[in-house]
Design goal:
InterPro entries: FAD-bd, FAD/NAD-bd_sf, Geranylgeranyl_Rdtase_fam, Geranylgeranyl_reductase
Strand content: 15-25%
Number of helices: 11
Number of domains: 2
Bound molecules: flavin-adenine dinucleotide
Pfam families: FAD_binding_3
Structural class: alpha/beta
Distance between the termini: 24 Å
GO molecular function, one term: FAD binding
Order of helices and strands: EHEEHEEEEHEEEEEHEEEEHEEEHHHHHH
Protein name: Drug:proton antiporter
CATH topology of the largest domain: FAD/NAD(P)-binding domain
Length: 415
C-alpha cells in the first residue's frame, strides 16, 4: 500500500505494479490538483520519467538546455553536461498536470488508485508492526481501514503516516521554505534556460536572502516565479518570502510582465524538508519515501528527482522482499532500503547541510557566485554539477572524479 500520490507515491506504485505486486495507492485529493512547487525538472528527474516509461515527447513538456545564473550584474548560461548516464536536458511541467499524469501512469501500470481517501494514521499489530492504515473516505469522511503487508509513506512534508508511528523529524536538519506564483509572460514562457537569481535581498533586514529566486518557463504562456530560502542563521528567523519576492520582482524588467495584473495564481508557500531529516527510512513494515523522509536536497531545494529515485529503490526492495517468506529473511531484505538511500545521498546531503550552515544560511549564494567564479566556465561547471547532483557514477571525467573524491572525505552520518 502506498500513501500519497505525489511523485514519490505514484512512482513507487507504478514500479511496484510493473514488478507484478498488487498495490493500492491512496490519495487524499482528487486530480488534477495544485501542489506548490517550482515545476523544474533537472536531468535526474528526466531520467526517472524515462525509467518509468513516461512519454516526454508528447505536448505539455517544456524542455530546457540548462540554467542561467544571475548574480551581481553578471549572468551566465550553463548547459546541462553531456554525461553517459543522464539526459542532457531538463523539463518543466506544472504540478497540476504532472502529478495527474504520474498517478494515471501508476493506474495504467496496474496500481489501484483511490482518491479522496485521507489517511489518518497507521494501524499496528500488538508487536507495533504496521499492518495497514486508518483513513476517512469521500465527502462524508466515512471511516475506513486498509490492510497490507507493507506500507510506503509518500504523504509529503506533512508526514502524517510516519508521525503516527512516532517518527519525528531530526531538528538538526534544516527545513527551508519556498513560495511560488504563476504569471502570464509571453516574453519569458519559451526561455530555453531555467533562470536563477542569487543576489536577492530581504527588504526588512537588508541582509542577502539565504537562498535564490527562479523564473521557470512553462511554454504555455506562463512562467513559474518563486524563491526558496533557508532560515536565516544570523537571526534564526524564517525569511519573509512575500516581501523578498515583491522586492525582487520590482527589479525585473517591465517587459517581462511579472506584475500584479499578469498574475495567474495567488502566492503560495510550503516547507522543504531536507537532508534526510526523518529516520529510520524503513522499520516495522513502513518505508518512507520523498518529502516524508526529508529527501529534498539542501544544496538546491530540488526534491522531485529524489522522490522518484527513492520510489524506484523502495519498489525494487519491496518486490525482492515479498519474494521471501514473511519473517526475518524478508525483514533483512527490507532493511536494504535505508542502506541504499544512505549510499546514494547521505554524504552529499551532509556536505550540503554543512555548506548551508557555514555559508548559504549566513551570506546567501553571493559569495559562492563571486565574480571570479562567474567568469570561470570551469569553476562554474563544477559548481553546477555539485549543486544539482548531475554527475556520472562511476566517474567518467575529471569533474566527476573530483566530486566523488570530495564526497568520499565526508564522514558517513548514522542511519
Ligand atoms: C515552492 C516550492 C518549489 C519547489 N520547486 C521544486 C522544483 O522546481 N523542482 C523540484 O524537484 N522540487 C521542487 N520542490 C520540492 C518538491 O515539490 C517536493 O520535494 C516533491 O513534491 C516531493 O514529492 P512527494 O511525492 O514526496 O510529496 P508531495 O509532492 O507533497 O506529495 C504528497 C502526496 O500525498 C498526499 N497526501 C498527503 N497527506 C495525505 C494523507 N494523509 N492521506 C492521503 N494522501 C495524502 C498529498 O495530497 C500529495 O498528493 C519545491 C517545493 C516547494 C514548496
Amino acid at each position: 500500500m502506498v500513501v500519497g500520490a505525489g511523485p514519490a507515491g505514484s512512482a513507487a506504485a507504478a514500479h511496484l505494479a510493473r514488478a507484478g505486486v498488487d498495490v493500492l495507492l491512496l490519495e487524499k485529493s482528487g486530480f488534477p490538483r495544485e501542489k506548490v512547487c517550482g515545476d523544474g525538472l533537472t536531468p535526474r528527474s528526466v531520467l526517472q520519467l524515462v525509467r518509468l516509461g513516461i512519454d516526454i515527447d508528447t505536448p505539455g513538456w517544456m524542455r530546457n538546455k540548462g540554467m542561467r545564473w544571475v548574480c551581481g550584474g553578471h549572468q551566465v548560461e550553463l548547459d546541462w553536461p553531456r554525461l553517459g548516464t543522464l539526459p542532457d536536458f531538463g523539463l518543466t511541467r506544472s504540478r497540476h498536470d504532472f502529478d495527474e499524469l504520474l498517478a494515471s501512469h501508476a493506474s495504467a501500470s496496474g496500481a489501484r488508485l483511490r482518491t479522496h481517501v485521507k489517511v489518518t494514521g497507521p494501524l499496528t499489530d500488538r508487536s507495533g508492526r504496521v499492518v495497514g492504515v486508518a483513513a476517512v473516505r469521500g465527502p462524508e469522511g466515512e471511516p475506513v481501514e486498509y490492510r497490507a503487508p507493507l506500507v510506503v509513506a509518500a504523504d509529503g512534508a506533512s508526514a502524517r503516516t510516519a508521525l503516527g508511528l512516532g517518527l519525528v523529524r531530526d531538528e538538526r536538519r534544516p527545513v527551508a521554505a519556498a513560495a511560488r506564483r504563476y504569471y502570464r509572460s509571453e516574453a519569458r514562457t519559451h526561455d530555453p534556460y531555467l533562470e536563477l537569481w542569487a543576489d536577492l535581498r530581504c527588504p526588512r533586514t537588508g541582509h542577502d536572502l539565504p537562498g535564490y529566486g527562479w523564473v521557470f518557463p512553462l511554454g504555455d504562456g506562463r512562467v513559474n516565479v518563486g524563491l526558496g530560502a533557508l532560515p536565516q542563521q544570523r537571526r534564526r528567523r524564517p525569511v519573509d518570502l512575500r516581501a523578498a519576492l515583491e522586492h525582487w520582482l520590482d527589479r525585473l524588467p517591465e517587459e517581462w510582465g511579472l506584475r500584479e495584473e499578469n498574475a495567474d495564481s495567488p502566492l503560495r508557500s510550503a516547507p522543504l524538508p531536507m537532508g534526510l531529516n526523518r529516520r529510520p527510512q524503513y522499520g516495522r513494515g513502513l518505508l518512507l519515501v520523498g518529502d516524508s523522509a526529508g529527501m529534498v536536497s539542501p544544496w538546491s531545494g530540488e526534491g522531485i528527482a529524489q522522490a522518484m529515485e527513492a520510489a524506484e529503490v523502495a519498489a525494487e526492495t519491496i518486490a525482492l522482499a515479498l519474494a521471501r517468506p514473511a519473517g526475518p529473511r524478508r525483514e533483512h531484505a527490507l532493511h536494504q532500503y535505508p542502506v541504499e538511500i544512505q549510499r546514494r545521498w547521505a554524504r552529499y546531503f551532509r556536505l550540503g547541510d554543512l555548506a548551508g550552515d557555514l555559508v548559504l544560511s549566513r551570506f546567501g549564494f553571493r559569495p559562492v557566485l563571486h565574480p571570479r567564479v562567474m567568469a570561470s566556465p570551469r569553476l562554474l561547471g563544477v559548481l553546477a554539477r555539485l549543486l544539482t547532483h548531475v554527475s556520472d557514477e562511476p566517474a567518467q571525467d575529471r569533474v566527476d572524479a573530483l566530486l566523488h573524491g570530495i564526497l568520499r572525505l565526508v564522514p558517513v552520518p548514522r542511519r
